[in-house]
Design a protein that fits this description.
Blueprint lengths: L3 H17 L2 H17 L10 H32 L11 H20 L4 H12 L4 H8 L3 H19 L2 H9 L11 E6 L7 E6 L5 E6 L8 E7 L10 H22 L1 E3 L6 E6 L16 E4 L6 E4 L1 H7 L1 H9 L3 E3 L3 E5 L2 E10 L5 E7 L5 E5 L5
Helix pairs in contact: 1-2, 1-3, 2-3, 4-9, 5-7, 6-7, 9-10
């Protein structure tokens, strides 16, 4: 271990910072990596493979750390709902960024597997372990010029691999590959309401406004987000799913403020407007959901917007976590119940790939989340 630390320490700290998304935790994670390496030293048969062996241990350590962090966030949310803690701002940003890194790493690993080992090794050392060309040359016993040539050829080969139909759609979703044209682009994200159709997404380059809709128009006009200006936090993300999740969580905060105060702000003229329940007589093809949603109607200019109960639930942290775990799911019918003498609503989401479901109980008058029930619901 004494000989190993000075040789590998700086590289492992950089790698752990990259894999975990936390510079503050990187030193501790690198230390844990070396401790695990010491415990399992007898499994290393080839000393020349030691850097790759250590990198594999670091990936497992960081993945375990991130899972633990996700559990801590869920526990924090439960305490927050019970009134024991206040809600910190942006507590989901690190988790979203970490989940995005997982998705991108998985995609790149599949693309890299299609490349020759010599090309793959150079790309991994440069872009995963973030070594400089000189360090790569020393590691692989190559000249720096040869490393530069292999990197250039490797990037071209990786681009060709990502252009294959089975990977290209995912690469576009994650922002690694740019779509050929502007406008609406179908993503690989399943609509959270019907689970039968994909989500289309459009980001306006001038206004940075994001719109998302179900290609099957399963609820109203299918809109999940319509023309909402991207938050600054979302601009640091590249995955379509992470951007959408970040924006929906922000809508949860906005709707919560509206419901708590009883008024919202008109998106057209900016004037204050009261929040109300949807009218039972709104003919739209989804009348059974309208009475349970909210509507902000401006009396000055006549503009109106709002959200169904399904929208309010998918915007919530509880809905978002379930959607992350069950990417193909559908919304459950709304039921009217009574909880401790209070009128309440029950709905939620169920997986289309298993028996998992989450049911979320909300107060009928304030849409406050009263209870979350489900084996994987948080």
């Amino acid at each position: 271990m004494d000989a190993l630390v000075p040789v590998e320490w700086d590289r492992l700290v950089r790698l752990c910072a990259h894999l975990s998304g936390s510079i503050d935790a990187a030193d501790d994670l690198a230390q844990e990596t070396l401790v695990e390496a010491w415990r399992h030293a007898d499994t290393l048969r080839d000393q020349e493979a030691r850097p790759a062996w250590l990198s594999g241990i670091a990936r497992n350590v960081c993945l375990r750390w991130r899972r633990q962090r996700a559990r801590e966030i869920e526990r924090h949310d439960r305490l927050m709902r019970q009134g024991h803690l206040e809600s910190p701002t942006n507590r989901y940003d690190d988790l979203l960024a970490g989940l995005e890194r997982d998705e991108i790493a998985d995609l790149l690993e599949r693309a890299l597997n299609a490349l020759p080992k010599s090309t793959r090794d150079v790309l991994v050392l440069r872009y995963v372990e973030e070594l400089r060309n000189r360090e790569i040359a020393s590691r692989l016993s190559l000249g720096e010029g040869e490393v530069a040539v292999r990197l250039h050829r490797g990037r071209m080969a990786l681009q060709r691999a990502l252009a294959q139909p089975e990977l290209r759609a995912e690469a576009i979703d994650m922002g690694i590959v740019t779509p050929d044209t502007a406008g609406w682009h179908e993503t690989r994200i399943w609509c959270p309401f019907c689970g039968q159709h994909r989500v289309e997404m459009r980001i306006e380059p001038d206004t940075q406004a994001i719109s998302c809709r179900c290609t099957g128009s399963c609820i109203g006009d299918g809109t999940i987000i319509g023309g909402k200006r991207l938050m600054e936090q979302s601009r640091t993300l590249t995955s379509m799913k992470s951007i959408l999740s970040r924006e929906l969580l922000d809508l949860h905060r906005i709707y919560r403020e509206i419901l708590d105060t009883g008024t919202g702000r008109c998106e057209q003229c900016g004037r204050s407007a009261p929040v109300e329940s949807w009218s039972d007589t709104e003919p739209d093809g989804w009348d059974t959901l309208r009475p349970y949603g909210i509507r902000i109607a401006c009396q000055a200019c006549g503009a109106a917007n709002g959200a169904s109960l399904w929208h309010l639930l998918i915007d919530s942290p509880e809905g978002q976590r379930f959607w992350r775990r069950q990417p193909r799911m559908h919304a459950l019918p709304v039921r009217e119940v009574e909880v401790d003498g209070r009128a309440a609503l029950v709905s939620g989401f169920a997986s289309l790939r298993g028996a998992e479901r989450v049911e979320i109980v909300t107060a009928r008058d304030t849409r406050e989340i009263l209870h979350v029930d489900g084996a994987h619901g948080g």
